[in-house]
Amino acid sequence: MLAMDYRGPYRVRAVQKPEPEIEHPDDCIVQVTRSCICGSDLHLYHGFVPDTRVGSTFGHEFIGIVVEVGLNVQKLKVGDHVIVPFNISCGKCAFCKQELYGNCHESNPEATAVGGIFGYSHTAGGFLGGQAEYVRVPYADVGPTVIPPEMDPENAVLLTDVVPTAYQACEMGGIVSRDTVVIFGAGPIGIMAAKCAWLFGAGRVIVIDNVDYRLEFVKNYAPCEAYNFDEMNDVVEFVKKATDWFGADVCIDAVGCEANGDAWQSLTGKILLLQSGSATALHWAINSVKKGGIVSIVGVYGPTGNLVPIGNVVNKGITIRANQASVKRNLPKLIEHVMEGRLNPKEIITHRIPLEHVSDAYRIFSDKLDNCIKTVLIPPSSNY
Q1: Contact 158, 348 (CB under 8 A)
Q2: Which residues pair with 29 in a beta bridge?
Q3: Mind listing the domains of the chain with CATH numbers?
Q4: What is the C-alpha separation between 156 and 252, in angstroms, rounded?
Q5: How sure is the predictor about 62, in pLDDT bands with cuts at 50, 70 and 90?
């Protein structure tokens, strides 16, 4: 089968690999119809995630058709077209029973934090990902959800990660009626979070980034206020001034470990690697939120430490909430939002690229070429 292959930082290609096989009676095999490149895939691509091994296949956002099921699989049948959540969860452990599907204790037993994730290094279990023609899906009766016949597959593929992560960012922020919400990052997650904030009743949504075409996109898609931090003397002062010096009710870090905007953070986190990436957006979120406010973190940070202003968290009485999205928990309501027309995720897709050209696809997305917002990869065997 054709699959993406990681050869080291900034080096990926499409190669032939063996097709996956059933390894456990709870497995199924899915023929991929659509997969995406995620912003967090770029952290792997750039070499910021530990234990990302040469030969890995990335891709945790994919949908596909079930072509084989293990002996224990009850809820799926061959021919089902399914959404596959990016997190791999057993459904039975203590954390899955709390609907913390991103923290499954069985899918990634070597880790003390995150559960298994498709195509996201050996720190997340070493599973092969969906930027391929076929994928082995463990715990097939737990995660995969049959796509409603009327749903556009391109909407469905964004329900594997982008929409659930953005929605949970707003949910963790505890957004209530008329709140002012500031979102750091205008990538796909930040854009979708700006859209979802209105579903929770936000009164004002502000997005901060430094890529003009993304800021213009989010203003039209969400809609919201959008500002370029390169044009500000001080981001925190800007937010404070815009909120009568109180600060935002909710701040969302949708950037993570590769944030720009602070030379010292970039030097220590991205060049010298003295901390787990640049925590610039997290600093801004902590310092921009009001006293007693909530900071919601969905940007990716590695397992090692970051330098953050914890004293400000304590003295301001801030609540911080963070996690990998529990996709399975929110899928039913998100499917409803899409089917009722409240969300139309496919509108953020700007590039549809054959899997054969995955190297070009990563370069375009990474370098922010051609006004790229979201890239979908199409396997050669897909009939959709």
Answers
A1: yes
A2: 68, 136
A3: 2-161+326-378 (3.90.180.10), 162-322 (3.40.50.720)
A4: 24
A5: very high
